[in-house]
Amino acid sequence: TDRDILRQYRDERMQMEQHKSENKAKMQAICEAHYCEELELLQTLPGIKEESAANIIAEIGVDMKMFLTASAIVGWAGLKPRNDQSAGKIKSRKITHGNKYLRKILVEAAWSAARTKDSRFMKMYQRLLARGKSKQKALIAVVRKLLVLIWNMLSKKEAFNPEYKRRIQAA
To answer: C or N: which end of the chain has fewer Cβ atoms within 10 Å?
Structure first.
């Protein structure tokens, strides 16, 4: 009957939720055991907390030697805009294909960072909106900035300092 089928669906859903929570707990434990320093470094950025930091570490790792520049990791994540032009006519500026899981984590973190009061990310987001950029384009710019900062933090093993005004290597 329909009730039996619905009960089975509910049981499957509850089992999947339990597996998901167990996997999250295990991933968190692995990060805390092996990547404690990097986990703490990433959490100094606005918008990134424990779960996001663990997911970022799971996607890109902690050894930034495989990405020679911040631009390389931005390209790998698929956050560089395409430049499709022909005869001076712009055809597309969409972002390229890349790691969709990392992009999803970073977009959520960027939304949070852009809403953090008096943060450089909020100021950047508001400045881009004032210049006429769409919300999505402004958000992707914040995501790129976050990823560049993550690359710099993990390669130099330095915490995020919002007061630091030196120009970091840009993508």
So the answer is: N
Residue indicated by tokens 């909106």: 129
Per-residue pLDDT tens digits for 41-80: 999 999 899 889 999 999 998 888 889 999 899 989 988 7
3 state DSSP class of 89:
strand
Radius of gyration of the chain (CA): 19
- Angle at Cα 156 formed by Cα 68 and Cα 29, nearest 5°? 100
Residue 32 binned pLDDT confidence (cut-offs 50, 70, 90): confident
Q: CA 151, 116, 69: angle at the middle one, nearest 5?
A: 10
Give the separation between CA 94 and CA 97, rounded to whole angstroms.
9
How far apart, in whole angstroms, are the C-alpha atoms of residue 131 and residue 138? Answer: 10
Measure the N-to-C terminal CA separation of the chain; round to a whole number of Å. Answer: 58
Rounded Cα–Cα distance for residues 27 and 67 (Å): 23
Q: How far is CA 108 from the centre of its chain?
A: 7
Which helix (H) or strand (E) segment holds residue 128: the answer is: helix 120-130
| pTM assigned to the model | 0.80
The string over 83-114, giving b where at least 16 C-beta atoms fall within 10 Å of a residue's C-beta and e elsewhere, is eeeeeeeeeeeebeebbeebbebbbbbbebbb
